[in-house]
Amino acid sequence: SSEDFLNARAALAACPVSAIRSTSQAVNDGNVKLLTPQEEEVSKAFALNPKLNGIPLPFPKELSKYVWNVGHHSEKTFGAAPYVVKGNHQGKDISVLVDVPRFSESAIQTIQSLSSPDGPNYMFLTHIDDTAQHLEWKKRFPNMQRIFHSGDLGEHNWIGDESLEDVEILLKGASDVENGKLLAFSLDSTVKNSGMTIDCSKSSDADHQLQEAYLNIDSDFIILHTPGHSPGSIALLHRLDGGTLFTGDTYGYTTRDGGHMTGFPRFGDDLQLQVRTLECLGRISLQYDCVASGHGHPRNYRHQVGSDDHTSVEEWKHADNEAAVSELRSYQ
């Protein structure tokens, strides 16, 4: 189908080690065999070259009016998906680069096309695993402010990158997810303005608290500390166009086993803590209709349900969340 073809081209473009290729010849038992004319046409269609086949590149891929999947996945971040998201923060139209693309001239041009010639205003680093080459990007866009959580420093900085200690915005403080509380931050949080507590317990109206937080900080963005996958994992909540939650490796969609939402339990640091985090995220699901993770695939509930019926959308979200929580528990 056309969807399968587009997905295959996206996989070809996204593979960080170029293990998926389009070729003009086949090799069988060491013998080179030229492709048939029909096979040549297929190979041409898969080529990532609009001048050759007139087919647009798979990336950047628009997820909503304000969000793009950048492409340019890097093997240094295990192929994590970077995103650009736009919105307003304290009266200014801004752009945020979520996690780190491969550092290359073509990636730079893509980022500039989605943000500005001076690059994004912020680089949001969801967790330690996906930070490689952040310093190269900072040198290229010196006005860009990097956001990272201190929980992934010290013994949890397994890549040994001490330059992360010098990011412009280093978040401190932890969510008390064991008691149903998320710590929320503004994009430009400092030690003096350290964060806000969002009570996600069953008896609390977390959605109202988040709406108040958006107003109080005058922003379309809220940062949430989401521990579990790593101590310093953070998520970015963006409220426009139905809302998007950028989750890093905390929560995402996998096509394995028929497809389901997952907390990637094989790779988590503290699965019990991550269960509590996912339960909190499930209780604020009215705030987002799309989950954009670092691995797996974006999960756009409006697209999946194909309806404007809020009830069915919310039921789908809750079922997905419960499945991911159950999977995490099965690994404990």
Automatic annotation (TrEMBL):
InterPro entries: RibonucZ/Hydroxyglut_hydro. It comes from the Eukaryota. Gene3D superfamilies: Ribonuclease Z/Hydroxyacylglutathione hydrolase-like. Transmembrane segments: none annotated. This is Metallo-beta-lactamase domain-containing protein. The lineage of its organism: Eukaryota, Sar, Stramenopiles, Ochrophyta, Raphidophyceae.
